[in-house]
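Notebook entry, structure prediction.
Reason for the run: the old model in the group folder had no record of what sequence produced it. Starting over properly, with the input documented here first.
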Amino acid sequence: MSTPDRKTAEVRRLLEGGPHPAVPAELATRATELGLRMLHRRRLVRRTLWVLLAAAVIVFLVWASIAQPWVAPPSTVTPPVEGL
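New structure, fully documented this time:
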C-alpha cells in the first residue's frame, strides 16, 4: 500500500469510527472574530507600508532636487596657465 492510500484509509477509519468530539458552541463566533482581527491587522500593516513608501519617495525627491546628484561637481584643480 502506498503512502497516500495508507493516509486515506487512516482518515476514513478515524471519521467512521466512534462518536465525534463535541464542538464548542461559540467556536464559529471566535473564529469569525479572529479572522476579522487578522484582516484588520493585515490592512493596517499594508496601509502603513504604503505610507512609508510614499514618505520615502517624497524624501528622495526632495533630496534629489536639493543635492542634484546628476550635476558634475566643480573642478578643484586649476588648469595650467599658458601664455605668460
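Summary: The chain is about 65% helix and 0% strand.
The old model has been moved to the deprecated folder.
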